[in-house]
Design a protein that fits this description.
The complex is a heterodimer of chains A (about 200) and B (about 190). Chain A has three helices and ten strands, in the order H-E-E-H-E-E-E-E-E-E-E-H-E. Chain A is elongated. With about 200 residues, chain A is α+β, with helices and mostly antiparallel strands. Chain A has two domains: about 40 residues; about 160 residues, Sandwich (Jelly Rolls), CATH 2.60.120.600. Chain B is an alpha+beta fold and about 190 residues long. Chain B folds into two domains: about 40 residues; about 140 residues, Immunoglobulin-like (Sandwich), CATH 2.60.40.1610. Chain B contains four helices and eight strands; from the N terminus they run H-H-E-E-E-E-H-E-E-E-H-E. In chain B, the strands form two sheets. Chain B has a four-stranded antiparallel beta sheet with strand order 1-7-3-4, sandwiched between helices. In chain B, strands 6-5-2-8 form a four-stranded mixed beta sheet, with no helix packed on it. Classes of the chains: A alpha+beta (about 200), B alpha+beta (about 190). The interface between A and B is large, with 55 and 50 residues.
């Protein structure tokens, strides 16, 4: 093999090695992103109906993955003795929530000092609601004779029901916050009477 | 490896090295994510604009335009402070005097919430904290009388005060002065 061929082979080997290393780093970073955004099963969570809550959100006991998941998806969360966060990305039928669909959410006030239901887009920021309604909460909810609240989300207002507009065509995330939840609920998050999430009609 | 050719050995070591590299990159990214996000929160462009280094700052009420921290609560009015204990303790005080929920929460540089005091726990008294670094105060300044000493797990961190407001326009005259009672300054 000539000197030229020798150098040519060496350069090719180094180039292949560099590409493979970059690919390995990209694979490591990509899998980290995927795990933090798409793999809630890695975190200790409890599911109640369509809602789930991470038991270690905001806790100093959180493990490597829980801490990172919370930082990415719910930065500055409080511990569950202060606030519990239940998140829903699917309706009761198991279909992914979409902003172009109308949903009716009904339930009874949870066992907490104060509560709210907020609609977020899939980037976890608020929708640009033309009526300024971003959440229904323990102060604004009107309870019916049975003591239940109701709200709707979607592109269209439903007559007589509190409406959280969700303009656009994208994913929808609902968050139920419970401030100062009862000790019983803290101890057994699965005892939450989960609000129902039902789609109304066809999507726009 | 005796029966393998040079070429096979080369690829064996390549695959092994690449797998280790991918796993290390993955773990490093997961470990670093909360720390990097907190650094951006405390020292990024939005933080510098708000001028909140060892002093209280008061962001606009939450709306669709609030895009600094994910999942902002539209029912809370926030006050913030990025504390830095490297030059000594930081004193934090707040006296919202509101009948509804409020809280002062402290977050370490790795995003852990290590301290919270809410209105019920405060029982009508103001919050008065003397925040010191994990190794203590090298100058050993005595805490102000009546202040509660809180040891931060990291020398920098973030303070978030939440004040409940369900109708900001109607409650503005009450909740704005209340949240602006937050003080955060080098001791």
């Amino acid at each position: 093999m000539s000197t030229k061929d020798h150098w040519s082979a060496r350069v090719r080997r180094v180039a292949i090695g560099a590409v493979l290393y970059l690919g390995a780093v990209a694979l490591g970073l990509g899998s980290a992103w995927w795990v933090l955004k798409k793999s809630p099963w890695l975190n200790p969570s409890v599911e109640v109906g369509a809602w789930s809550t991470n038991l270690q959100a905001g806790s100093q006991d959180a493990g490597l993955y829980t801490r990172a998941t919370i930082a990415v998806n719910a930065l500055l969360a409080l511990g569950r003795d202060e606030t519990m966060y239940f998140v829903a990305t699917r309706d009761d039928a198991g279909h992914a929530l979409r902003s172009q669909c109308n949903y009716r959410i009904t339930g009874v006030p949870p066992q907490a000092r104060w509560w709210s239901v907020t609609a977020y887009a899939d980037d976890l920021f608020l929708f640009d609601a033309p009526n300024g309604h971003y959440s229904l909460n323990g102060s604004t909810a009107k309870l019916d004779a049975a003591g239940a609240f109701a709200l709707t989300t979607g592109p269209n207002e439903q007559s007589g029901v509190y409406w959280l507009p969700t303009p656009g065509h994208r994913g929808l995330t609902l968050t139920l916050r419970l401030y100062n939840p009862s000790p019983a609920l803290q101890a057994a998050p699965q005892s939450l009477v989960a609000p129902a999430i039902q789609r109304i009609g066809d999507c726009v | 490896m005796k029966n393998f050719s040079d070429h096979q050995r080369l690829w064996f070591y390549r695959v092994l090295t690449l797998t280790v590299t991918a796993v290390l990159a993955h773990l490093l990214a997961v470990w670093a994510a909360p720390r990097v996000i907190m650094q951006v929160l405390m020292h990024g462009p939005a933080a510098q604009k708000m001028n909140m280094h060892n002093q209280a700052s008061f962001p606009d009420p939450v709306s669709a335009k609030s895009r600094t921290v994910v999942m902002p609560s539209p029912d809370m009015l926030y006050s913030v402070c990025a504390y830095d204990l490297r030059q000594g303790p930081v004193r934090v005080s707040a006296a919202p005097a509101l009948p509804n929920y409020w809280s002062v929460a402290l977050y370490a540089a790795n995003s852990d919430n290590f301290f919270v005091r809410n209105d019920r726990q405060a029982q009508g008294r103001p919050v008065d904290l003397w925040l010191v670094a994990p190794g203590g105060d090298p100058q050993q300044k005595p805490p102000p009388p009546g202040a509660e000493v809180v040891v931060s797990p990291s020398s920098t961190g973030f303070l978030l005060m939440r004040v409940l407001t369900t109708d900001y326009q109607a409650e503005k005259d009450r909740v704005e002065p209340a949240r602006r009672t937050l003080q955060c300054s080098q001791g």
